Amino acid sequence: MAKILLVEDDLGLQQLTRDYLENNGLEVAVLDRGDEVFSYLENTPVDLMILDVMLPGKDGFSVCRQVRDKFSLPILMLTAKGEDFDQVIGLELGADDYVIKPAEPRVLLARINALLRRGQASVKAPEELQFGDLCIDKTSRIVRLKNNEITLTSHEFELLWLLASNSGEVLSREHVHQHMIGRQYDGLDRTVDVRVSRIRKKLGDNSDKPYRIKTVWGQGYLFVSDAWGM
Question: Which domains does the chain have, with CATH numbers?
């Protein structure tokens, strides 16, 4: 049974969400303050966190940034606004997905299950990709660049592995989105773009003119195999 941490200060919505998720086979712990999250996670294993943006003590964006610096658990953010601005901020801070409130319970459950499936995917055999100074080990889920370990979230790792295992091939945004998010690309969702940007930053790519993970305009993304030194 997967354990979910629900951080929501609307006690009525908190109880309704908790009851629905528990009735669908999930274990749910709840907090109603943002400044209690980090200490809770330090002491209690959690498989996924549902995080509201507007919280007392510390807002959801600040919590997401703090948690992501240390923990790789999936983070699903709840926002009362449908504006791209809020969604992009959450993704840039390391959230894995977002749902706009009020969330349809079945949609929320589907998003949770999709994140859990990707996070719990088992590795059947040792696999490793090496490109010059870059080493991507799928067994240990460790990435090293010039022997320095690079910290990636679980979904950043999956995206890097997808691009790197298809090095030299342009992968369409639609293909990447379907593979990573599990739903059809609607032309507006910035999730994949934000994750690519975060990976570039962590791997020392040029954000203005990327040469390691390129954006081929009108086509998709290209992982350049000979752009990693040595």
Answer: 3-119 (3.40.50.2300), 128-223 (1.10.10.10)
